[in-house]
Design a protein that fits this description.
Helices cover 42% and strands 21% of the residues. The protein has eight helices and eleven strands. Strands 2-1-3-4-5 form a five-stranded parallel beta sheet, sandwiched between helices. A four-stranded antiparallel beta sheet has the order 6-7-8-9, with helices on one face. It has a two-stranded antiparallel ribbon with strand order 10-11.
């Protein structure tokens, strides 16, 4: 997974790059918007961590240009402005996620993992495990041919679990992946959503819980 950090605060950019390389990511760093567009045309970038306030070209322009070019990379936008209007504006530009400075490094990692899952699975339209089937294009889910009436959050959680293909998904990753409003991001809402999703999926139970690790889907025929 290749990450391009676009950040004019050199110390912050270098710190992020060192941390992400330690996590196993391939990392490139540039310090202005013009260089970001050049680098995006030279290497295959999966995720861009993009500061909104940049010299040469602002992050807004970089994001809009990449989306106009239909570049498939995921974009995590950083900004010192964290109001609701700022977040909405950033997402409307085409950013996939939005993080206000100052931020906790562990939160950035969680959001990055969520974007990485979306990037690697972006071409997959129908997800399935055993008799559970989810169509990401039509936004419908079913079990053993029975339609499931899921809320958007339940659908998002099921989608994330199916994307993991039997692997565990940590509650923090589910929060970053499914819950857009930071005020709603606490593990109790994940636990409640898993509970209602289990009930709607019915028996036998296919969601497994591993304390301290997360949740996974166990395929059953």
């Amino acid at each position: 997974m290749r990450v391009l950090i676009v950040e004019d605060e050199v110390d912050l950019a270098d710190s992020l790059a060192d941390g992400l390389r330690g996590e196993g990511y391939l990392v490139d760093v540039v310090h202005d918007g013009a260089a970001a567009l050049v680098k995006a045309g030279q290497v295959d970038v999966d995720i861009m961590i993009l500061d909104r306030d940049l010299p040469e070209l602002r992050g807004d322009v970089v994001c809009r240009t990449l989306r106009d070019q239909q570049h498939p990379m995921r974009i995590l936008m950083l900004t010192a402005a964290g109001t609701l209007d700022d977040r909405v504006a950033g997402l409307d530009l085409g950013a996939d996620d939005y993080l206000a400075k100052p931020f906790a490094y562990v939160e950035l990692l969680a959001r990055l993992r969520a974007l990485a899952r979306r990037a690697t699975e972006s071409n997959q339209i129908v997800l399935s495990s055993g008799d559970v089937r989810l169509d990401t294009l039509r936004r419908v889910a079913e079990r053993d041919g029975r339609p499931l009436a899921l809320t958007p959050k339940e659908f998002g959680v099921l989608e994330s679990l199916l994307y993991a293909d039997g692997g565990h998904v940590h509650p923090d990753d589910l929060l970053a992946d499914v819950w857009e409003n930071p005020a709603d991001r606490n593990r109790s809402v994940v636990k409640l959503t898993i509970h209602t999703l289990r009930r709607k999926l019915g028996d036998p139970d296919v969601i497994r819980t591993s304390p301290g690790v997360g949740y996974r889907i166990e395929a059953r025929a």
